[in-house]
Structure formats: C-alpha cells, structure tokens
Amino acid sequence: QVRLVESGGGSVQAGGSLRLSCKAFGNITRLSFVEWYRQAPEQQRELVARISRTGKLSYDEAVEGRFIISRDDTEKTGFLEMNDLKPEDTGVYYCRASIWTETVDYYWGQGTQVTVSS
C-alpha cells in the first residue's frame, strides 16, 4: 500500500526557516511530480510549489524567492525548504505526488503544521 509521510513542521518566529520532507512508502516504481499545498485556518488549500518529473520548478508568487522545492528520487522523497518565514505562511502543509506502481495514481500526505509567530 502506497502512502506519503510528511515531517519537519513546527513553530518558528518570523524570519526563521523550516524544511519539510515528504517520503513515499510502498511498492513504488518512481515518483512523477511532487507538489506542496498550504491550508491556512478557514481557507482553501492552495498550491505553493511544484516540481515536475523532469525537475521543472514552479512557485506561487507569495513564496517565490523564499521557498525551494526539491526531490531525491533515490529516497523517493520530496522537500520544501522554507526561508524568511512570515506569519501568513502559517497553516497545514500537505504534499501531493503522482506515483507509479503498476499504474499511476495521486496520493496525499497527512499534513504537517507550520506556525510562524511575529
């Protein structure tokens, strides 16, 4: 059974940094794209960063220049390095990945809380 497990959330002061990880477990052939979403309290889940299978990067303008998305295909893990954090970055961060097993499907992680205080 395939699952994504996130880690690395926590509480930091404004200007601080955190690094989130999203590791895939199961009988996996490979990862395709990896995405990170953020859901602030009482807000919809929004896409903040994406890395394609070929390594193409895209970011929401609110995090461009502060967040870095990356991946380690050997470890089947995606990362989101978050720098110069702001209180408006607070929320639950979810990873989503397209994963090949015998077929391809989309999976979500369980979410990890990030809290940035001013």
Please explain how this structure is put together.
The strands form two sheets. Strands 2, 4, 5, 6, 9, 10 and 11 form a seven-stranded mixed sheet that branches. Strands 1-3-8-7 form a four-stranded antiparallel sheet, with no helix packed on it. Strand 5 and strand 6 form a beta hairpin. By secondary structure, it is mostly beta strands. The model has no long low-confidence stretch (mean pLDDT 96). It is built from no helices and eleven strands.
Characteristic key phrases:
single chain; 4-stranded antiparallel sheet; mainly beta; 11 strands; 118 residues; 58% strand; 7-stranded mixed sheet
Shape call? globular
Number of strands: 11
Question: What is the arithmetic mean of pLDDT?
Answer: 96
Q: What structural class do helix, strand and pairing data support? A: mainly beta
SSE series: EEEEEEEEEEE
- Estimated radius of gyration: 14 Å
